[in-house]
Each structure stands twice: as C-alpha cells, then as structure tokens.
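Thread title: Can someone regenerate the structure for this chain?

I was given the following input by a collaborator and told the matching structure tokens would be attached. They weren't. Posting the sequence so someone can regenerate them.
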Amino acid sequence: QVRVVESGGGLVQAGGSLRLSCAASGSIFSGQRVSWYRQAPGKQRDLVAIITSAGTNYADSVKGRFTISRDNARNTVYLQMNSLKPENTAVYYCMWSAYWGQGTQVTVSS
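Best answer:
Regenerated them for you:
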C-alpha cells in the first residue's frame, strides 16, 4: 500500500509558476513510476508528465514549461510548472505506482 498526498496548488496569474509536490509513504522504493495527471471540469483526466528510473516524459502541451523531478530521500516527486496558461487550470493528480492522491487544484487567471 502507498499513501499519496499532493500539495502546492493554488491561484496564479497567467505567466506565473507553481511547484506541486507529491509525497508518498508506505511501500516505497526508488525508481517507481510516478505520474502527474490533470483533469479540467467536464474533461477527461490527461497525463501531464511521468518519471521512472529510465527518465522523464511529458505531454506535448507542457514540454519546455513543466519539469518533473524526484527526491528519493524525501519520497517526493515535484512538478515545476512555469509560464502557466489559463488552460492549465485543472485538478492535478499524482499517481505513485498504482496509487492515486486526492488531487490539488491549480487555477490560472488571465
């Protein structure tokens, strides 16, 4: 079992930045696949970024603006989001291995 908790969401103006955190506890080991997803109102949940022992990957819409990273000592994965746009407004979810967090709201005002 893995407990996943996201934090760091909030309200930011377009062009601003936020850093989301995904902290995990339980059956954790380094190199586990961790993914960030987002879900806007009325839309499906979409993959934003992935980090594994092999590297990282991003949705085309966030490449060059978002960075996923991990701190194994803290069992935490981060999503640094720069140059935010109103269309990035969504609830952002972390999936650690097969376990989901509760999500954190990101709102980008124009």
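The chain has no helices and eleven strands.
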